[in-house]
Amino acid sequence: MSAIIISGKELAQEKRQNMKLQTEELKQKGMVPGLAVILVGEDPASQSYVRAKERACKEIGVHSELDEVSVSITEEELLQKIDELNKADHIHGILVQLPLPDHISEEKVIEAIDPAKDVDGFHPINIGRMMIGQEAFLPCTPFGIVEMIKSKNIELQGKHVVVIGRSNIVGKPVGQLLLNEHATVTYCHSRTKDMSDYTKKADILVVAVGRPLMINADHMKEGAVVIDVGVNRNEEGKLVGDVDFKSAKEKASYITPVPGGVGPMTITMLLHNTILSAERHLKEEN
C-alpha cells in the first residue's frame, strides 16, 4: 500500500481560482481587498515568503503593499507604522513578518495589530475566539492543515490526533482547531517521554517540530493520516520535512509532501482571511 498524496499545491490553486471570483465580485461593489506586509531586516527565508505572498496577491487581484524596513528600526517606530495601517481604510489585512530582531517584542507587535485586520490570526483576541469556537481569523498554517484533511473527506470526529510540537504558530492552534472538529487531541513535545507510544496510536499525525526526518514508518500505525509541517534543508541543501516521506508513505493512508504540501496552503489561507476582512468591512460600510 502506498499513501494517497494530499497536495497542498493543487488544493491551493483550486481555492485561489474561487478567490479570484470573490475578489472580482468585491471590486464590482467598489471594494479592493488590501494586504500590507512589513518586513524587518533581510532574512532570506522571510524575504522569500514575502515575495511568494506578493505573487499570490497579484494572481488573485488583491492589492498588496510591502514596507521593507531596516533591522535597526526601533520598536516605537514599528508600532507607529502598525498604527498608521490600522487607520488606513484601503488596508484590510496587516502582517508583520516574523521573526523580528531581538530588540523588538513580538508580543507587543502582534498585540498592536487591530484584531479586525489580523489576517495572520495571531492576536490574543483571535486566538481566544478560536479557542471557544467563535468567529475569528484563524492562524493560516493550522487553518490550511484542516482544509487539507477535509479536502479528502477524512473523518475527524472521534479520531485520535497526535500533534508533535507546541508552538503558538502551528502546534497549539492546530490541536485546538481539530478539537473544534470533535477529534481527540494529544500533544507531544521535546519533554514527552516514550513519544512513539503516542504516535503509534494516532489516526492522524501532525508533525511540526522543525527536525529533519524525525518521524518514520516505525513511529506510526498502519493507515495513519500524516501531515508534515516541517521545512528543513538536509546536508545537500535539499528541502525535507520532519517526516521520512519515503518510509512513511508505505504505511500511511494519506500523506503531505515537502515541498508542495502545507506551505502553499499557508499563503492561500492568508489571502482567504484578507478577502474575508474586506467583505466584513464592506458589510460595516453598508
From TrEMBL:
State the protein's name.
Bifunctional protein FolD
Which PROSITE patterns is this protein grouped with? THF_DHG_CYH_2
Q: What is its EC number?
A: 1.5.1.5, 3.5.4.9
InterPro entries according to UniProt: Aminoacid_DH-like_N_sf (IPR046346), NAD(P)-bd_dom_sf (IPR036291), THF_DH/CycHdrlase (IPR000672), THF_DH/CycHdrlase_cat_dom (IPR020630), THF_DH/CycHdrlase_CS (IPR020867), THF_DH/CycHdrlase_NAD-bd_dom (IPR020631)
- At which positions is NADP(+) bound? 165-167, 231
Domain (Tetrahydrofolate dehydrogenase/cyclohydrolase NAD(P)-binding): residue spans on this chain: 139-281
Function text: Catalyzes the oxidation of 5,10-methylenetetrahydrofolate to 5,10-methenyltetrahydrofolate and then the hydrolysis of 5,10-methenyltetrahydrofolate to 10-formyltetrahydrofolate.
Q: Does the keyword Cytoplasm apply?
A: no
Query: Is this entry keyworded Lyase?
Result: no
Q: Which organism is it from?
A: Salipaludibacillus agaradhaerens
User: How does this polypeptide assemble, per the annotation?
Assistant: Homodimer.
Pathway membership, UniProt: One-carbon metabolism; tetrahydrofolate interconversion
What reaction does this catalyse?
A: (6R)-5,10-methylene-5,6,7,8-tetrahydrofolate + NADP(+) = (6R)-5,10-methenyltetrahydrofolate + NADPH; (6R)-5,10-methenyltetrahydrofolate + H2O = (6R)-10-formyltetrahydrofolate + H(+)
- Record key words, sorted: Amino-acid biosynthesis, Histidine biosynthesis, Hydrolase, Methionine biosynthesis, Multifunctional enzyme, NADP, One-carbon metabolism, Oxidoreductase, Purine biosynthesis
Q: Which Pfam families match?
A: THF_DHG_CYH, THF_DHG_CYH_C
The processes (GO biological process) annotated in the record are: L-histidine biosynthetic process; methionine biosynthetic process; purine nucleotide biosynthetic process; tetrahydrofolate interconversion
Spell out the family assignment given in the record's similarity comment. Answer: Belongs to the tetrahydrofolate dehydrogenase/cyclohydrolase family.
Residue ranges constituting the Tetrahydrofolate dehydrogenase/cyclohydrolase catalytic domain according to the UniProt record: 6-120
* UniProt GO molecular function: methenyltetrahydrofolate cyclohydrolase activity; methylenetetrahydrofolate dehydrogenase (NADP+) activity
Alphabetical GO CC annotations of the entry are: cytosol
